[in-house]
Structures are given as C-alpha cells and as structure tokens.
Amino acid sequence: MALQPLILITGPDLAPTAKQMAEDAGYTLVHTPPYPSEEVLADFLKQYDPVGVVSRMGQFGAGAVAAGKSLRVISKHGAGVDNIDIDAATQHGIQVIRAAGGNAVSVAEHTVALMFSTIKRLLPLDAGMRAGRWEKAGFLGRELSGMRLGLVGGGAIAAAVAKLVKGMDLDVLVYDPYASVDAIEAMGARRAERIEDLLRQSDIVSLHCPLTESNTHMLNAAMLALMPADSYVINTSRGGLIDEAALLAALESGHIAGAGLDTFEQEPPLDVNALAASERVILTPHIAGVTKEAGKRVGELAVSGIVDFLAGETLPKARLVNTLA
C-alpha cells in the first residue's frame, strides 16, 4: 500500500476545515513546533519528505528549502512572504503561493482598534485607574474625526481599513505605485504620488505593504521627521518597514505622539522590545489576522492552493509569488 503524500505545516495549528480539505484530497498532515529553527525545520523536511508546506510560523530559509527533496510547493498562510527564501525556492523548482486577502477584514479591524486605543490613550488611562489614580484633571484627548489618515499600500487590507473608517470624517490618502487611480478612488481615498507627500499630509500613517529589500526601514528617522508634529504610526504589516530605534527616538522627543504596532523587526523578540518602555506605544504579538474567521479563510486558501497546484490546476496569477522556468 502506497504511503499518502504529506503536507507539512510550520506551526501547531490549522483550521479544522482546512485539515479536512487536505485529508479529503488524500494528504497526511504533520505539524512542526511554533517558530521552528532552520535546523528543526530541515529535520522535519528530511524525516517526513513533504510534497507541500503551509508556511505559518518562522523563517523558511535556503537550508530548509534544500532539505525538501520531494517538495514542490510552499503555500504561505497569509499574504506576506518575506519569511520565505523565494530565490532558493525558485532555484529548486519549488512554486511559492500566497493566500492573499483571506485575513483582510481581521487585520483591518485590528488596525482601527490600534488607532483608537493609541490616540484615545486607553492603556495608560486604564493602568492609572487600576493603580487608584483619577486622572481627569489635566487630561486632554483628541478626536479622530477630521484627522488625515495615510495608508501606505492600497491592497485588500487597506481597502478594508478605508471601508471601516468611512463615516468617521477621516481624510484618507493612499500611496501605492502599483494601484490604479480608479482603485484608490473606489476606496473613497485620494492618491499620493510619493510617500514623502503622504507622510507630510498625514496625522496617522498606517502601513499595509509587503516587506522587500528596497523598503526595509522605509520609516526611518528622516521619513518620520516629515510627519506632522503629534502624529501617529500604526503597523499591522511587517516590522522591518520601521526603524524601531528611530521610532523610539521620535516618540521620546514628542514628535510622534503614539504608535500602535502588531509587527516587529525581530519576531518573536529575543527580549522585551525597547518600545515597550514608552506609554505612548501599544504592542500586540503579530495577531491582527489571527481570528477564527480569518483562520478558516486563510487556511482553506493555503491548503486548496497546494491541492490544486499539485493536481495540475492553474492558480490565479495574483497568488503566484515566483515564476518557474
């Protein structure tokens, strides 16, 4: 009796419906521990020899790619593929695909939650109450209504954010050189031709673009200085887009009034993130898209992509990350 082909999931969880989808298609599933090191991941690939991988937690580097002798497809459990060595996968003839859009609503909701929590200073006020302080005297808050919201990236998540803030009287500006004017106007937003223009005109800057070599530390000291005084930074995209040391300096100087961050340069951090020292910052552990509803949609997209690809079916171009010869 021939052994069933195997799909490896990098992490302990996958939506039950996605598991059932894989099993119904004749695949066995094996999970790694959370955030496996490259050595652990390579050991799993050598031991189980999967034909497909659902990439959830941790890096999938060249060493892991080379260890997958029967590996034909890596399916990202989400949209961002900066944790996967795309060049190594291409060199080994491995297709990389993504489950774009499946978590857009969840990430957008978390983005708006970080905006409200940061600007309304909910955490320090809550902490004061729990410590027995009544800090009404001297407190002066801000209204979000009338603020200028700059979205860096114009994809599904940014569109969902724009939809959520509709009716709040926010002036929405979008910078995305790959999005058409019509697509941005359909979001109820205006287009910024340059990111510098967006930064100068935004009271809140929210990041919704992939991390690449060319935009690493896109928000550095010089770019943060372009933002108006007492402005805010929200990041539910990728931590490497922000120079965290520069952001902390801008917060300490008072130029940036607050930040809501779900992603970080080092994940998971080796120690407590330095930004945690500031009461102007709200931190969450990269869980914006981790909801029951998004997990179901993304898991099903990730698994169905593997099943369909290995069955010889054509996937939409938007889901294909690399081009194989």
Describe the structure.
This protein has 2 domains: 6-102 and 292-319, 3-Layer(aba) Sandwich (Rossmann fold), CATH 3.40.50.720; 104-283, Rossmann fold. It is of the alpha/beta class and 325 residues long. The strands form 2 sheets. Strands 8-7-6-9-10-11-12 form a 7-stranded parallel beta sheet. Strands 2-1-3-4-5 form a 5-stranded parallel beta sheet, with helices on both faces. The two termini are 34 Å apart. Helix 1 packs parallel to helix 12 (292-310) and helix 5 packs across helix 7 (156-165). Strand 10, helix 11 (244-253) and strand 11 form a beta-alpha-beta unit. Helices cover 35% and strands 15% of the residues. It has 12 helices and 12 strands. The model has no long low-confidence stretch (mean pLDDT 94).
Summarize, please.
With 325 residues, the chain is an alpha/beta fold. It contains 12 helices and 12 strands.
How do the strands and helices of this protein lay out in sequence?
Elements: E1 6-9, H1 16-24, E2 28-31, H2 38-48, E3 52-55, H3 62-67, E4 73-76, H4 86-91, E5 95-98, H5 104-119, H6 122-130, E6 148-152, H7 156-165, E7 171-175, H8 181-186, E8 190-191, H9 195-200, E9 204-207, H10 221-226, E10 231-235, H11 244-253, E11 256-261, E12 281-283, H12 292-310
Parallel strand pairs: 1-2, 1-3, 3-4, 4-5, 6-7, 6-9, 7-8, 9-10, 10-11, 11-12
Helix pairs in contact: 1-12, 5-7
